Sequence to fold (628 residues):
Amino acid sequence: MTSDDFLNDRRDGGTFPAAAPAPAAETVIAVDGVRRSYKDGFEAVSGVSFSVARGELFALLGTNGAGKTSTVELLEGLALPTSGTIKVLGHDPYRERAAVRPRTGVMLQEGGFPSDLTVLETALMWSACTTGARPAAEALEMVGLTSRAKVRVKQLSGGEKRRLDLALALTSRPEVLFLDEPTTGLDAEGRRDTWDLIRALRESGTTVLLTTHYLEEAETLADRLAIMHQGQIVTAGTTAEVTAAHPARIRFTLPDGVPAAHLPLSLQAGADGQRVEIRTSTLQASLHELLGWAVESGVELLGLDARSASLEEAFLQIANTQLRSRADDPRRAGPRHGSDRPTDGSTPNETKKVTA
Amino acid sequence: MTTPTTVADSRTASTPSGRSASLRRLNALARAELILLIRNRSAIFVALVLPIVMIFSIRASLEQIDLAGTGLSVAGAALTGGIGIVLVQVVYMNLVTGYVTRREELVLKRLRTGEVTDREILISTALPSVALAVLQSVLLVVAGAIAFDLSAPKRPELFLLGLIAGFVMMSALAAATSAVTRTVQTSQLTTLPLFFISLFASGIFVPLDVFPDKLAAVFELLPLTGVMTLVRHGWLGGVETGDLVTAAVAALAWTAFAVFAVQRWFRWDPRG
Fold:
């Protein structure tokens, strides 16, 4: 996929600025105290505020059911929030739809196309409905679907459908692009291609808001990110800022016959039989102390693994924290909504909590 | 180099009042919908074959009835009834399925993320079916003139008023019915009430004059009765002005209600 050629070729003669304008970055998306309740009283979004500057790539992370899609749908102008305000490009995306839509591109988490149209027919229909549209063939080429142009939508694979959806989102040459889980269902190569495309778009000055539950995706792409949990933003900032608050981790297994109690107390290690985990905010010092002890005691630390705080650590810690007990909160006892509800309570493998 | 702001401005400027853009969008969506209609064999069957079958069965049933008091010939009653059939089957029943299909496929939701307005989505979905119905109505008038010695519509303005009200009302009632229809399969059930009421009590199968006066007076209030009266007597003539006024008022009132119902109750997201 060579997306740069397309991005530099704007039909109205102008080009996107090579980089986001530096002085006083304009706020493109402003979300303030937004709540969204469904008819049955379930509150999917419970007071969310954030802003995205022009040219920024902002990622909303969260487990399934955290409220990402419910939030993004409000930004896309598909529904009104129960309370709070939203401005996209200075306008209310729901009430001032006509002012906002020509300048945004949207990829829904689950978008639909008539199954009996071909890929090209779908793209042609969409481009005819769009002001200053990219030609359909060009949009398809950007996402690598040119060879599938004559295939009916119902015969596409899940990944191909996602890419068709992305092609349509790009048709308006959007200033602001909303991508709701853009790579779900893609294979590794498709995911990398999509990442390259998103990066190229960002390079050309497009503001991107994406949701994902792939931590790697947020880590590689996002300038800033926010982690949502149970309808609220729990933490936000750059990857470095988000991870700074979390401890580094050391893991190893002690040989039989060496109880964990023999470890230096200052390490505040937590043990499960012979398996030991240490959380520390001073990784280098703790490692030094640990290794020194191991040498002195003649102990071999099996499977020694030390790592700085990662987004994954931060994420897991948040995901495992019950902010409010779901059972105690009647608003959260309601039925599931859409596909953004937890299907398997999928907080990845439980980590034992040992605080350094 | 253009700053993003000027890009935005020029883009807003290139979307003037938007009438031409709106027509372009309607055209694009209706064209896609037409392709889908042509590729949908069961819809094509319903649209092309069933009306003919129904007209023959209307004729068969009319031969059992004494039409003497109605001033209608069997052919006149059958062909005007045929237009009613087209309205119910080709427009109403076909479109309920159409709206439900697009909603459940999440097409409506996807379309609403773009520049297309809600009204454009609803109208463009209806256009191919309405166009087909117009074509069939014209064919019925031509067939009446050539094969059955019927005249061209005697009061074309009433005939047209009836047809147009019928198209709008049936499309809007289809959209409203889709709101209470969970799946494409259940649309075969949810369309039945209006189908039967219209066929037997709005004058499609049996002219209203055949019923006792009190019953006929009630039937006049049904959705399609006013439309049928306008179409039948706009085409064949021979009815009092008072009845035509009643019919026009009923037709327009139901049309207005149907449009209101869509605005109030239409569902864009899947029911589930």
Observations:
- Residues 1-22, 324-356 of chain A have pLDDT under 50 and may be disordered.
- The radius of gyration of chain A is 24 Å.
